[in-house]
C-alpha cells in the first residue's frame, strides 16, 4: 500500500454518530454492524440510499458466484491500494472458498500464481479494466465462454463499482474499525 493510504491519515469526516442515524442506516447497521464505510457515507443520506441499493444487489443478490465476486473485489482493492476494502473483503473471500495463498496472490502479478482458467479470467478482467478502462476482445471472448449476458454485465459493473468505492474510501480516509 502507498504511504498515502487512509490508515496513515486522519479521516476527512467522522462517522455519523448513532443518535443521527436514519432508518436506512439503522437497518444496514443491524445487518452489518456499524461499519465506518456506511456511517461515513450516510452523512449524505440521499446518495447513501441510492448507493446502498446497488452495493447490496452486487454483494448479496448478484448472479456471479461468491468466489468470482470476491476475486474481482480483492483484485480491485489491490489495484486501488484500498486497505479498508481489502480487509473487509478478505474474510468474505476466504468464506467464498479462496485460500490464504490465493488471497495473498491477488496482490501479485497475475502470472505469479497458478490460477485456474476460471479464476484467471476474472483476475484478467479486473486487471484490464484497471489498466485500460475496458476489457480486450480476447478476454471478453474467453469470459463469454463461461458467463452469460447478465454475469458479464455484472462483472464489469462490480469491478467499476468497487473502483468507485475504493476512490471514496481512500479520498475520505475512512478508517478500519477496531479489530480489522
From TrEMBL:
InterPro entries listed in its UniProt record: AhpD-like, CMD-like
A Pfam family: CMD
Domain annotation Carboxymuconolactone decarboxylase-like: ranges: 45-115
Name of the protein this chain belongs to: Carboxymuconolactone decarboxylase family protein
Gene source species: Actinomadura monticuli
Amino acid at each position: 500500500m502507498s504511504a498515502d493510504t487512509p490508515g496513515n491519515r486522519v479521516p476527512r469526516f467522522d462517522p455519523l454518530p448513532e443518535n443521527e442515524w436514519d432508518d436506512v442506516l439503522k437497518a444496514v447497521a443491524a445487518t452489518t454492524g456499524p461499519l465506518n464505510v456506511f456511517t461515513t457515507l450516510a452523512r449524505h443520506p440521499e446518495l447513501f440510499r441510492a448507493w446502498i441499493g446497488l452495493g447490496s444487489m452486487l454483494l448479496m443478490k448478484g448472479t456471479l458466484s461468491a468466489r468470482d465476486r470476491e476475486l474481482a473485489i480483492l483484485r480491485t482493492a489491490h489495484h486501488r491500494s484500498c486497505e479498508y476494502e481489502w480487509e473487509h473483503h478478505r474474510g468474505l473471500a476466504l468464506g467464498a472458498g479462496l485460500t490464504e495463498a490465493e488471497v495473498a496472490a491477488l496482490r501479485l502479478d497475475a502470472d505469479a500464481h497458478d490460477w485456474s482458467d476460471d479464476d484467471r479470467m476474472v483476475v484478467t478482467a479486473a486487471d484490464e479494466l484497471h489498466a485500460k478502462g475496458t476489457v480486450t476482445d480476447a478476454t471478453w471472448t474467453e469470459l463469454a465462454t463461461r458467463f452469460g449476458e447478465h454475469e458479464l454485465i455484472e462483472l464489469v459493473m462490480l469491478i467499476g463499482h468497487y473502483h468507485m468505492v475504493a476512490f471514496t474510501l481512500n479520498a475520505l480516509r475512512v478508517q478500519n474499525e477496531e479489530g480489522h
